[in-house]
Amino acid sequence: MTRQAAALRLIKDAGLARPKELEARGISRRQLYQLVRQGLVARQARGIYTAATHQATTDHTLAHVAKRVPAGVFCLLTALRMHGLTTQSPPQVWIALPEKARKPRVDYPRLRVARFSGAALTEGIETRRLEGVDVRVYSAAKTVADCFKYRNKVGIDVAVEALRDFTRRHRGGATELAHFARVCRVTRVMQPYLDAVA
């Protein structure tokens, strides 16, 4: 296998890759830019590259955001969609960041940043792999609790719909839901809705 073919295979395996990550795998920036000029590698966005034959999935934008904003965690409407707990298709990608983190500069897709702190930021994170990228998203139960906490931003109707869908799909999830309601400090807010769907 030629050096170029080996480099191309590494880029294909990486999915979406940054030059720094490729350098760690033995592909110099010079070699990367040469592959771009030859049309074998495509520049997706500033600092993100894929093999030209890369097949984008429906979650391509999420993989793209996760690569550009590694400290972010998908939350609220985006997390609901990832868990299949909503009929909504949000126009922006929702990510959670620490309260003092700088807002990321991403041209596309549009980001909606929610500020989290303490246990509400760190608990309930799951990791999925999309297009070769590790993507962090809050669990279904944590996302439902977050929707009640941020009901003024997402709408109480969205939170109630998510709760209904969650209780239908996760029959034994009441304990987990109660835990995250405490973490997000929304136990009292959620209780009447929990009683209604029980």
* Overall average pLDDT: 86
Q: How many angstroms separate the termini?
A: 61 Å
Domains (count)? 2
Q: Give the helix proportion (percent range).
A: 40-55%
CATH domain topology of the largest domain: Beta Polymerase, domain 2
Radius of gyration: 20 Å
Number of separate helices: 11
Order of SSEs, N→C? HHHEEHEHEEHEEHHHHH
Largest sheet: 3 strands, mixed
How many β-strand stretches? 7
At the first level of CATH, the class of the largest domain is: Alpha Beta
Oligomerization state of this entry? Answer: single chain
Strand order of the largest sheet: 3-4-5
Shape: elongated
Proper CATH architecture of the largest domain: 2-Layer Sandwich
Quickly give the structural class: alpha+beta
What fraction strand? 15-25%
Which residues form runs of ≥5 with pLDDT under 50? none
Features:
alpha+beta, 198 residues, single chain, 3-stranded mixed beta sheet, two-stranded antiparallel ribbon, elongated
